[in-house]
Design brief:
single chain; alpha+beta; Hypothetical Protein Pfu-838710-001; 8-stranded antiparallel beta barrel; two-stranded parallel sheet; globular
Length: 212
Amino acid sequence: MSDTGYGDFEFERRFFVRTPPMELLAEPEPVLIVQSYFLAQDGYALRLRVQADGLQLPLGPDADPLAVLEEARDAFEFCAVTLKGPMNVGTRYEAEREIDVTVGIEMIRRGGHRIVKNRYAVWLGADGWVVDVFGGENAPLVVAECERSGPVTDLQIPAFCVTELTDDARFANDGLARAPYSGWAADFEAELREQGPRFLTDFGHNDLQRRG
């Protein structure tokens, strides 16, 4: 439980990124993440995650999460099991407990719907952001996320954010584990062309940085 007064609730906003900034991808210590969802339904999820700090592997559409798990087995230094509830206007219940890395790796090997990604961190304005570059069946999807200890209001939204995904369950990691992006990317691009970008207005003022 956190000490923010909100307990095990997380506050975040997520955005679709077409081209992440090169300076972000030059981050000296990215994080390699492999996750497996043993339950992912109606917004509820049970997830196991292993991660290796400072390790970046090429993750194209042919990247197999299990192969990556084996290749980086000795580099993983953190594992956690997490329970998640449905997203509700940028707020989601998320309770996490660290577990033994070896046990976590073996459980991920044995089941669940898996995803793999490289995560990059950057400080933009007053907020810390993470940018996830997905591999395997979710390549070439890139998602940027801003998370705070309270509601993410009056956000300065970087120019590389194309449109908001916060309320789109398809782009939640548990959604991507069950229905990978590659299976419906063309439909999403068609939606984006037809409807244009959108940014939610439930979070105060959106300060959209100038787009080139």
